[in-house]
Amino acid sequence: MKRTKVIDALKRTDFGSEITVMGWVRSKRGSKGIFFIALNDGSTIKNIQIVGEDQNFDEETVKLITTGACLRVVGTLVESPAAGQASEVQARQIEVLGTCDNTYPLQKKGASWEYLRTVAHMRPRTNTFGAVLRIRHNMAMAIHTYFHQHGFFYFHTPLITASDCEGAGNMFQVTTKNLYDLRRDDEGKIDYSDDFFGQQVALTVSGQLEGELGATALGQIYTFGPTFRAENSNTPRHLAEFWMIEPEMAFYDKQDLMDLEEDFIKYCVRWALDNCRDDLEFLNKMVDKTLLERLEGVLKESFVRLPYTEGIEILQQAIKDGKKFEFPCEWGDDLASEHERYLVEEHFKKPVIMTDYPKEIKAFYMKLNDDGRTMQGTDVLFPQIGEIIGGSVREENYDKLMAEINRRGMETEKLEWYLDTRRWGSCPHAGFGLGFERLILFVTGMQNIRDVIPFPRTPKNCEF
Ligand code: 4AD
Ligand code: MG
């Protein structure tokens, strides 16, 4: 079954050689006893043209060459007379590996994103999803390469955990208990002692706390794995299962952290421009005409570094000048995505790293500023996306961290392993989390986060 991939076949110039290609028929047309097949094998957005003469093939085989069918083609590589392609294949032998009749769900062009989500097994065969999925792979490679080259260690944090890092309580519980027969104690509480782990556990919302243990030993680590949030957010930016990259660095202060956030994102965007050109050009033509311009724009700009308090002042001024927002934005409010996008897309017209948030709207682990009311968070806000990175300097002082934990009424019993990092040899450190799918949204120009992951999980939706 030796074959040449289409991406390689299109680069070959040894015209006259025999070649075998395999793939799926994108389209077939014919005239005057000659047929032309556009064949795609997923290695590239580009198709290779197969040319055949009807008289050389039996009629039954030719009839089976329909859109979606899978073929093995043996023939001669020839220089193509057609514009836009160097080579094509003059077919000598065609074998239909998998037929595809007219019940094929992707017959029609221009199927909606919503419809395509219902045919997940076919979705990757479309041009757009092929492009998105190749870019997704490339972004994963960019991320591993960046961190490896910068001396970070890939650190594996658990998916099943007893700790709620973000403290938001949006966790998916994991249990082997018989849900039809739950034993409760005298106070009505469920007894987990006979559950698989002997305690209540859930899928992780973030690997950060465990990551901090890695960073305070190895210096610099990163995680890259699935993350689960049972938040009932039915938006184009939220998934219940998404992938997150979480670097954590010892001896980093706020400045170092912001520099890393900016350098890292720019590296990923540059990687896409350097390695995914064909796919990006396709998306720029078919999905978002400003995509390439926006990607190149991000590389040129220095990100704005904006304290939350100044951000609120800008938003208040905009309201005075007649701007209407759906949600309030007084000092102390969590910014809604409309506020973030106003700052990024209308006011500054470039990415913003927002810093020093009120402590009431951020997680317990962030380092408290001397003003006693703001914390050293460093979120990166992006055009089209809003928040793409959430990060902060961590509170490394045991007493201050405990004071915040107690103020929030959190249980410390299950956090002792984490607090140990502050008990013995505590060190200044910082880190952030990048939502992988939000990065893919930005890099592809797609509008809905469900369309940048092969199998999206959202409220009331867990198909396939
Ligand atoms: O801002 P978040 O909640 O931060 C954390 O989890 C920290 N523990 C990260 C850290 O400092 N190590 O999430 C980080 C990022 C967000 O900025 C967003 O890009 C993405 O994760 N994200 C989601 N992406 C898709 N669907 C969701 N439901 C998401 N929730 C967060
Ligand atoms: Mg956040």
Structural summary, described in words:
This protein has helices at residues 6-9, 59-64, 113-117, 127-149, 208-218, 254-275, 277-286, 291-300, 308-320, 337-347, 398-407, 416-423, 436-444; strands at residues 18-31, 34-40, 48-53, 70-79, 87-98, 153-154, 160-161, 173-174, 201-203, 220-228, 241-250, 304-307, 352-358, 374-382, 386-393, 429-435. With 464 residues, it is an alpha+beta fold. The chain is 31% helix and 24% strand. The chain contains 13 helices and 16 strands. It starts with 5 loop residues before the first helix and ends in a 20-residue tail after the last helix. It has an 8-stranded mixed sheet with strand order 6-10-11-16-15-14-13-12, sandwiched between helices. A 5-stranded mixed beta barrel has the order 1-2-3-5-4. It has a 3-stranded antiparallel sheet with strand order 7-9-8, with no helix packed on it. The structure holds 4-amino-1,4-dioxobutan-2-aminium adenosine-5'-monophosphate and magnesium ion.
Task: Describe the oligomeric state of these chains in a short phrase.
Answer: single chain
Distance between the termini: 30 Å
Order of helices and strands: HEEEHEEHHEEEEHEEHHHEHHEEEHHEH
Number of strands: 16
What is the average of the pLDDT values? 95
SSE inventory with pairings:
Layout: H1 6-9, E1 18-31, E2 34-40, E3 48-53, H2 59-64, E4 70-79, E5 87-98, H3 113-117, H4 127-149, E6 153-154, E7 160-161, E8 173-174, E9 201-203, H5 208-218, E10 220-228, E11 241-250, H6 254-275, H7 277-286, H8 291-300, E12 304-307, H9 308-320, H10 337-347, E13 352-358, E14 374-382, E15 386-393, H11 398-407, H12 416-423, E16 429-435, H13 436-444
Parallel strand pairs: 3-5, 6-10, 12-13
Antiparallel strand pairs: 1-2, 1-4, 2-3, 4-5, 7-9, 8-9, 10-11, 11-16, 13-14, 14-15, 15-16
4-amino-1,4-dioxobutan-2-aminium adenosine-5'-monophosphate (4AD) binds next to strand 11, strand 15, strand 16 and helix 13.
